[in-house]
Amino acid sequence: MKNFTTIKAEDFSENSIKLIGSDWMLITAGSISSDEYIQDKSFNTMTASWGGMGFLWNKPAAFIFVRPQRFTFNFTEKEDVFTLSFFSSDYRGALSLCGKVSGKDVNKVKEAGLTPITVENGSVAFQEASIILECKKNYADFLKPDCFIDKSIISSVYSAGDFHKMYIGEITKVWKKNT
Asked: CATH fold of 4-177, please?
C-alpha cells in the first residue's frame, strides 16, 4: 500500500482509549467491486467510539460493537474480515459525517472526501488514514441483558432494546502512514 509501512501488532504503541474514545475510528467491511469506486453498496463504513484492543486467545485482538440497525451491520455479518481506520484530527469532520448519514442512502465516503483502498485481507480502508488495522473475525455475539451487572447501562444506553453485537477480531496487520 502506497505511503504505508507495516508494523508488528506488539509494536503498536498508540493509546487505544484515546484513539477510539476521543479520536474515533471507522469500522469498514466489504470489498471494492471495481477499480473506480462507485457507490455500489459492496462495502460500508461507520464511525465508532466504542471498542478496544488487547491480547486474547494468544493473539493481538480488537473488539468492536455494531448495532443491527446500522447499514454496516450486514457487511460485518457477511464478511470474515474488517478494518479499523484511524485518522488525524484534520479528518474529524469526515468521521462526523460518516457517523451521521447512512451508506444505504448517501455515498458518504465520497461526501466525506475519503479514498477507499483495498488492503491485503481484501477489505476496505482509507488512503487518508494514519493507522489501519486489518482484523479477522474470531468471535461474535449480541450483548445480553441478563449478563449486565450494572443494570443502569440498559436503561441509559439500550432503552429501545437494540443491543450491540460484539465482534472480536485477530489483528492480522497494522499499517502506519509514513511521515
From this structure: Pnp Oxidase; Chain A (2.30.110)
